[in-house]
Structure formats: structure tokens, C-alpha cells
Design a protein that fits this description.
With about 600 residues, the chain is an alpha+beta fold. Among the domains are: about 130 residues, Beta-Lactamase (2-Layer Sandwich); about 190 residues, Heat Shock Protein 90, CATH 3.30.565.10. The strands form 5 sheets. The chain has a 5-stranded antiparallel sheet with strand order 2-1-7-6-4. Strands 9-8-12-11-10 form a 5-stranded antiparallel sheet, with helices on both faces. The chain is flat. The N and C termini lie far apart (about 75 Å).
């Protein structure tokens, strides 16, 4: 067999591989030669700049933490109860009422501030008040006024001062090496500016190290905060003592970065002042783990390599045109016919066994699958339309209507005209908004009125057992949403969360706009539900007559109408109530 006949008998895939292997080998050889002469300094510079950007971003996060802690200190400073309690202290004996007031304010701060692990207030009579998340903590109140940081707070005249630890005012008997940052400031009377107390707030090292770890894990990097006296303010995550020499040596330099060679491994040490005392943020990034982007210097080389590849590809394409592209062009034309809506199958030569013929067979299978899929979609759309109608009709519960009319009749018999009128009007308003003349969309204001009417009827039937709270932004009340997406959720909260609860209960509705979405949060303090029950509702593993079907139906309606895969999330705890979050898209006036 001659060479050209042997080549023709080889499969197209083999031909492509043989031709392009030669191109690839030559291209890789040229690329290797070019990049081996590239400047290492250029790469180090790009990695160093990226490291500085990372350190700057991390500094921004730290600034936010410190600012938040500062704002929490303002809450204590300007708390009227704290101010009044401190101004009434006139001896070294702790007043129980003052103690209770101070404790309440400090506990509220701890519950509100994730960054804060402890709060301590020292009044001018050497009493102290505290609240903390973990202990034990020993407080040496006798040395407070002897510390350097106390003098700094005096000089700051009410401004905050961040310090490392507390100069042994606080010690941790079970955690000898516990590390933390403290915010300290003087509290003055907001009216007379008389000195009232000294505030100390603890931020644990772990809080900041979590930020370090989140940023550093991508590049296996370490971050820390040091001062000019070779002390760690915040130790590196995954602390390695062997790095101390380099960190303390170069952290005294100006802001910037250094390239270090540590035991044969190159690293970037990036530094930036924090703007607090003499503290500096230091980042240690392994150079060999960073994928540096090519600088402008290399663009000419890249263009050259691409040009060479194009030349080789052009040469190969001329050869491959007759082998591959011509039959593929025929397939392409046929695909355009199918794209136009005519699901016609290609002719297949059963005697051929190359990839082009296999492609035709697969394409024909795809055409058949699309044809079947279209038929299935048509059936599903019919089912969906039917289900949507059933869901809407299910909201207009005839049992609810019958029970309400019975209640109206009872009120009429006892001649309670006021409540009879009130219930009748509420029932009318409820069905007016529910039906909405057959339209799918109503304003958020109308939806709220529908819920209000519904709850009015329930409260008249259940002796005002349900309390309602509304927190809906004024700016969204006139926006339109799919009707009856909140009412079934409120109904579920009323019937399955609060009705069987001992005593009254509260349902809260919060609504606000988040860019192109509207967020609703419905909470109740009812009986709650288990994780298994939540899973059943979300997955739709419930029967229509069971509780939770209304939630599942609402999820399906919202998902179908708005095209949101998971529009509803549920969190609940048995005995403590349920919170349901609903996301819908903002409907423009044109679409409305």
C-alpha cells in the first residue's frame, strides 16, 4: 500500500493528532525558549504588587472591624441609662439597680457585636461592671489608673484608643497566653462633661485571625500585626516561629514589599501601616504559589508566538479543509435548517465509520430527543397552567368562607352590629384583593391589605390571638407582585404556628428592595417545625391536605412566574417560631 493511500485510510482523529502534534511541539519549544529568558524581577514585581493589593484589602477589612467596635462603644457612651446610672454613683458600694442597668446595656452590646467578646466599665469610685462571652476573667481594678493606656484615654478626651491587651488589668486564669486587642476610652457626662467612667472593650485575636485565614487560604499565605518593639499584636494564622526573624526585621521598613529567600523558597513580605499607634500589617505570601500575570513587557512576545502559531495553523488548515471542513460545512447547513424549526434528520452512510458519520448519527439522535422534548414541554405547560389555577383557587378556601359566614351569622343573632360590620367588610376586602378581577399582579399595598383583612377575621374568631407587625419600605408599596404569595405564608404561620400555641403570638412582615429584587421576611413566634418537616415542605413531599402544602405551592408559583429556582428559604426551631424569606424580582411598569 502506497503512503498516500495509507494516510487516507487513517481516521480523521488520527490525522488531526499527527498534524497538530508537530505544530504543538514546535510551539511549545519556542514558548519555552522565550519564557526562560523573561525577567524574574518583572514577575516578582507583579506578585509583590498583587500582595500589596491583598494587604490593602485586608487593611480595609480591619478598618471596618475597628470602626464597628468604635461605633459599639458610642452606643455605651451615649446610652441614656448608662449615663444616668453612672451619674448617680456616689460611693464605692455597688448599687444593685445600677449594676442591673449596666449589665443590661453591656449584654445588649455583646449580643449585637460579633467582634466583641467582653465589655468592662470602671467608674470613678473604683467599681467595675462587666459582661463577657467566655471566662473566667480576673479583673485587677486597683491598677487601672496606673496604666499607660489610662493616661492615653485622658489625653484623648473621649476619643477611642486601641491597645494591645490591657497591661494586666484583665487576666485569664485558664488561658495564660490569651491574646486580644482592647478599645479604651473615657466616658464623660454628655451634659456637664464630667468624668463618669472608663470603658474597655475586648476584641479576641481569633476574630481577626479568621479574616486572615479567609484571605490567606487561597495562596497559603500568612498575615499578622506587629509593633515596632518586635511584639505580635495579632499572631499569624498557622504561627511558625521560624518566620519571626524575617517579619520583625523587615516590618520596620517603609510600607511596601520585600522578596525573601527562606530555606530555598522565595517569599513576598508585604507591609502596610494600620494607622493605629505603631502597628503594622504584615503579609507573607509564597512566591512560587502565585500565578503572576504577564506584564506589558511580554505582550510583544505573546503576539509573536500567536503569529507563529497562526502560520502553522493556516498551513495545516489548508491540508485539513478537504478532510474535515467540507463535510462539516454540509452538516452546518443542515443544522441551520433544523435551527429554523424543521426537525429533519441527516442522511447517514452506514458503510462509513469515521467521526463525521458518527457525528451525523449523534445529531439525528439529538433531533429526535428535541422533538420528544418539545412534546413533553407542551404537556408540562398544560399541567403547569392547570396547577397554577388550582393553587389560586386553593387560596380561596371555602372552609374559611363558611366559617367566617357562620361567625357573621352568630354576630348578627346577638346583634353585635359593629363587629358584624367589621367582619363583613374584612371578608369583602379579602376576597376583593384575592380575586383582583382575575389579574395575576397586585400592588404590595393591596397584598398587605389582603393580609390585614385576613388577620382581622381570624382575630375576631380566635379572640385577638394574633398580633401583626409590618415593616415594609414605603418606596416599594406601589410596586406590583404576583398576588397571594404572602397570604398563604401568613396563613400557615397563623394556623400551624400560633393557633395551637398557649397565649397570643406575633407575626412580623418585613419588606425591602435589594437592587432588582424585593425581599420579604415573614417571622412568627409560634410552635416552629423540625428540620425534617422543612425538608419535606421544600421538596414537596407532602399531601395537599397536610400543613405546609401552601408554602410549597407558593414556592412553585413564584419559581414558575419569576424564573427563580429557590425563591423561598425557611429557618425554624421547635418552640421558638419560624422565619421564611421570599425573593421576587422587581416588575417594571412596562411588564406590569
Amino acid at each position: 500500500m502506497k503512503a498516500h493511500e495509507l494516510f487516507k485510510s487513517i481516521k480523521i482523529r488520527t490525522k488531526v493528532i499527527l498534524l497538530y502534534i508537530s505544530v504543538l511541539i514546535l510551539s511549545l519549544f519556542l514558548t519555552f525558549c522565550i519564557f526562560t529568558i523573561m525577567s524574574e524581577k518583572q514577575i516578582e514585581q507583579e506578585v509583590g504588587e498583587a500582595a500589596m493589593q491583598t494587604v490593602s484589602a485586608l487593611k480595609g477589612n480591619l478598618d471596618l472591624i475597628f470602626e464597628n467596635v468604635n461605633q459599639f462603644s458610642d452606643l455605651i457612651y451615649f446610652d441614656k441609662d448608662v449615663q444616668n446610672s453612672l451619674s448617680k454613683i456616689n460611693s464605692s458600694n455597688i448599687n444593685p439597680h445600677v449594676q442591673q442597668t449596666m449589665q443590661k446595656s453591656m449584654v445588649n452590646m455583646l449580643l449585637s457585636g460579633d467582634y466583641i467578646s467582653g465589655v468592662f466599665i470602671f467608674d470613678i469610685f473604683n467599681n467595675y461592671y462587666n459582661s463577657y462571652k467566655s471566662g473566667p476573667i480576673f479583673v485587677n481594678k486597683e491598677i487601672v489608673k496606673k496604666t499607660d493606656w489610662y493616661k492615653k484615654t485622658k489625653e484623648a478626651e473621649g476619643d477611642v484608643v486601641f491597645i494591645h491587651k490591657s497591661e494586666d488589668v484583665l487576666t485569664f486564669p485558664t488561658k495564660k497566653d490569651k491574646n486580644y486587642i482592647s478599645l479604651v476610652r473615657e466616658i464623660y457626662d454628655v451634659d456637664t462633661y464630667d468624668e463618669l467612667a472608663t470603658l474597655l472593650i475586648i476584641v479576641d485575636e481569633e476574630t481577626i485571625q479568621n479574616y486572615f485565614e479567609e484571605v490567606g487560604k487561597k495562596y497559603n499565605s500568612q498575615f499578622c500585626i506587629v509593633d515596632s518593639n518586635n511584639n505580635y499584636i495579632i499572631r499569624p494564622n498557622g504561627y511558625d516561629k521560624s518566620m519571626d526573624e524575617y517579619i520583625f526585621k523587615y516590618s520596620k521598613d517603609k510600607n511596601g514589599y520585600q522578596t525573601l529567600d527562606v530555606d530555598g523558597n522565595k517569599m513576598i513580605l508585604a507591609m502596610q501601616d494600620l494607622g493605629i499607634a505603631d502597628w503594622k500589617l504584615v503579609g507573607n505570601i509564597p512566591l512560587n504559589l502565585n500565578n503572576a500575570s504577564l506584564g506589558k513587557v511580554y505582550r510583544t512576545w505573546i503576539v509573536l508566538i500567536i503569529s507563529l502559531n497562526l502560520l502553522f495553523i493556516f498551513a495545516c488548515s489548508v491540508v485539513l479543509t478537504n478532510l474535515i471542513f467540507r463535510p462539516l460545512n454540509k452538516i452546518q447547513k443542515h443544522m441551520k435548517i433544523v435551527q429554523g424549526g424543521k426537525l429533519i434528520q441527516m442522511q447517514v452512510n452506514e458503510k462509513q465509520s469515521d467521526e463525521i458519520n458518527d457525528l451525523k448519527i449523534v445529531f439525528n439522535q439529538m433531533v429526535t430527543a428535541i422533538d420528544n422534548l418539545i412534546s413533553e414541554v407542551i404537556k408540562e405547560e398544560q399541567i403547569i397552567a392547570k396547577n397554577e389555577l388550582e393553587i389560586i383557587q386553593a387560596q380561596i378556601n371555602p372552609h374559611f368562607l363558611y366559617n367566617t359566614l357562620d361567625a357573621v351569622s352568630a354576630l348578627a343573632l346577638i346583634e353585635d352590629n359593629v363587629n358584624c360590620l367589621k367582619m363583613t367588610q374584612a371578608l369583602g376586602n379579602f376576597y376583593r384583593n384575592s380575586l383582583n378581577s382575575g389579574l395575576d399582579l397586585i400592588t404590595i399595598q393591596d397584598e398587605m391589605e389582603c393580609i390585614e383583612s385576613y388577620i382581622t377575621i381570624l382575630n375576631m374568631r380566635y379572640d385577638n390571638k394574633i398580633n401583626m407587625n409590618y415593616d415594609v419600605e414605603e418606596g416599594i408599596k406601589e410596586l406590583k407582585i404576583l398576588k397571594l404569595i404572602l397570604q398563604p405564608i401568613v396563613e400557615n404561620a397563623a394556623h400551624h404556628g400560633i393557633r395551637n400555641k398557649i397565649g397570643s403570638g406575633t407575626i412580623s412582615i418585613k419588606g425591602y428592595r435589594d437592587e432588582d429584587e424585593i425581599i420579604f421576611i415573614v417571622t412568627d413566634d409560634g410552635l416552629g417545625m423540625s428540620e425534617d418537616r422543612i425538608h419535606e415542605i421544600i421538596e414537596g413531599k407532602i399531601q395537599k391536605e397536610k400543613s405546609g402544602f401552601g408554602l410549597y405551592s407558593s414556592t412553585q408559583r413564584i419559581s414558575l412566574y419569576y424564573g427563580i429556582e429557590k425563591p423561598i428559604t425557611i429557618t425554624s426551631e421547635i418552640g421558638n417560631g419560624t422565619e421564611i424569606t421570599i425573593r421576587v424580582k422587581v416588575i417594571s411598569e412596562d411588564n406590569g
